[in-house]
Structure formats: C-alpha cells, structure tokens
Amino acid sequence: MKRRYFGTDGVRGTVGEGVITPEFVLRLGYAAGRVLAGNQTSGRPTVLIGKDTRVSGYMLEAALEAGFAAAGVDTMLAGPMPTPAVAYLTRALRLAAGVVISASHNPYQDNGIKFFSADGNKLPDATEIAIENELDNPLACVRSEQLGKARRLDDAAGRYIEFCKSTFPNEFDLRGMKLVVDCAHGAAYHIAPHVFHELGAEVIAIGNQPNGFNINQDCGATAPDALMRAVRANHADIGVALDGDADRLQIVDGAGRLYNGDELLYVLVKDRLAQGGVGGAVGTLMTNMAIEVALKALDVPFVRAKVGDRYVLEQLMKHGWQLGAEGSGHILCLDKHTTGDGIVSALQVLAAVKRAGKPLAQLLDSVRLFPQHMINVRTPADYDWQADQRLSAEREAVEQELGDSGRVLIRASGTEPVLRVMVEARHADQAIKSAERLAGIVKVG
After folding, report:
1. Which residues form the Alpha-D-phosphohexomutase alpha/beta/alpha domain (predicted)?
2. 104 flagged as catalytic
3. Binding-site residue set for Mg(2+)
4. Tens of pLDDT, residues 124-148
5. Which fold has domain 259-342?
C-alpha cells in the first residue's frame, strides 16, 4: 500500500507548509497514540519524545505531546537529543515507542517527525500504514481520567553518554589524542564532546552553539570544510563531523584529508576481519565501486541497497550481517546499535585505528576511490526514461566501454522532476565524458 505521509525517514517538510504544521502534527500524535494504545497489551503506553535544535521543535513538541495525551498516552520529554539516542533510550526504558522531531541534515526551515518501535528500530511498514489510516478518523479525546501525562527525562544525556562509551573497547582509551568534534549546532552539541573527553581525548568542540537557526549551516557532516580547517589550525589528530541529528559521520585526519562513509565502512570491515570474521557488508547504489573491488579482494560479500539507511538496514537484516553504510555518512554497526549512530560509528573507527596501530590513511592505502560524475537533468513530468530506447542503447554502449572498470547509475529523483545520471570510472575524464553523453540523450523539460 502506498504511503501518503510517511517517506523513507518519517514525515518531513518545510515548517508551516503541508504536513509540518501544528494542526497536522497534533493529529499525527493522536493517530499514533491510538495505534500504540491499541497494540498495548497491558497498562498505559509511554512514548519518548526527543528533538534537535531547530526553533520549530518547541512548537511541534507541544503539538505531539497534546496529541498523545488526547489519545491516553504518556510522554517523556528528552529535549535536544540525537536520533540514535532516542532509539537507544526507547529500548533501554522499555517504552512503547520513541519519536524524534528532526529534519536531520536539512536547514532549519525544515523539520520532520520519525518514529522508533519499542526495540529501537524504525516502525514496521504495517504500523506506519495503520497510523496513516487512523489519520482519516476525526480528532477526539479520551475521558479526563484517561488523559496522558508528560514528564521531563532529566538524565537522558547522561544515560546516552554512558551507552556510547560502552561501545568502545575496554582495553583502549583516547589519551594522547587531540580531537576536533563538529556538532553541526545540532542535537549532539551537549553530548558528543563529553563522550570523547570522558574516554581521555583532548577535545576541541565546534558547531556547539545552537541558536535555533544555525543547525547544519556551513558546518557538520554536510559541510566538512569547517572541520578540515579546524583540524589543521589546531594540529589535531582526528576530526569528527556529525549532522544535525547526529546519525551521520564524516572524519578528517591530521593531514586534513576527508573520509566518507564508503571509506569508513571498509576500515570497519577490515578491523572486524582481524578480530575473527565478517559475514558481508551492505552499501548502496551510490557506494563507490572501489570499495566493492577492495571488499572482493578480502573475500567479503558485498550487496548494494537502494539509497537510504532504511534500505541498508533491510539488507543487513535479510543477510544476517552487521556492517553497512552510505557514502553520506550513515554507518550501521548492528553489533553496537540498532540504528545509524554518528558518535558510536566514530568510536568504532577510532578503535580500529588503535587496534591496528596505524593512521587512518594507512588503513586505506590499498583503496583508491573511482572518480564519479553526476549530472542532474530536469525532465518533463511525464518523461518515462526507462522506456527511452535511445537512452537505453547509449547506456549499453557506455557500459560496454567501461567493462569491469566502471559503472552507470541512472535514477529519478523522488522529490522533483529530475533524472540523475552518474558514471563512475577509473579515470575522471572518462567518467565526465560518458556522463555528458548520456545526459545529452535525456529528454529535457
């Protein structure tokens, strides 16, 4: 069944438009509360609500809380809290669900609502569809004696800090390391620096002064230039960049070199191999081909999922594997957490560096990323690119020329009438020329 409101990562949009309004979020809270109450076998369900640092979070939190209360569901308010922290606390506190008010890496004008189930995973499809169906019913209210109550979870940050530290090997610490930690003026501003400091590192925090409007603005995992400059200026060993809700990670070494999620996945797989074994790894359609080639050389099976950490998780669960990632920095270590976690993933990379006794660059000295060139072509709304025989023939010709040394990826945008044409090859000029050939065939809108 096609969803009307839920996307791959909850409900998201521009504040004040469409679904991100107080009225809709109130109804969403009520509908979700009705579904959760119906699934509860005994007692009153309790939901944890966390948010990032956007100014709109106050408004949406109040609307959600009112909706849950009207449905007879209690709420615990955690305040600004990373998305993976809400997943962890929901599971640790044995709650019915967790809710995060965040638009992740988007600018402050956007916001969203995403849910976690009691086990710390994203809601099953059936539950999301049940909530959407409930939204068709009128907003009502339980009797006064059944109304939900709200209370503040004062020790949420401390609980999560201890959890993050517990994922780092007991035999290691970070003493003697100087780290720059960029919190993107987001939900981890009061958490991430403490995690690394309490493990012994000298921490220089940037992007840790949120004002409601500066989340992800020229900082964090989506704008790593700020981190690269800070690492060089402070002569740091490593830089860690998170995004607004701290589920993405980018890392910079002391030389100022940036490492994306593809490269960090390879580092983690190699580290797990040294400890015993790895069943396989999951990337996405956008994962650099060099990673696939390098993993094949290690005899590690590799599977590509659709773009989106939700789909990476689906493939990991299907194959019973533990490690997956997107190049954007969503990294899943299912032996440590149920969802992507920027802080936990950074700790796993630092543990790999400690265990190997080598700098990050040396751990990747056998991997040379293939150049990728992408062209976004605006197309007519009714353009069926898959039925375009000229494009199909040209794609086949390009793929034959690339052979085993490159690949073509063509996919439609899910949010606008744009066709994304990407070519990956061992040489940049070949990737550029091939992408331009294909883009020239596409019907332009």
Report:
1. 3-136, 159-256, 260-366
2. yes
3. 104, 243, 245, 247
4. 888 999 999 999 999 999 999 999 9
5. Alpha-D-Glucose-1,6-Bisphosphate; Chain A, domain 3 (3.40.120)
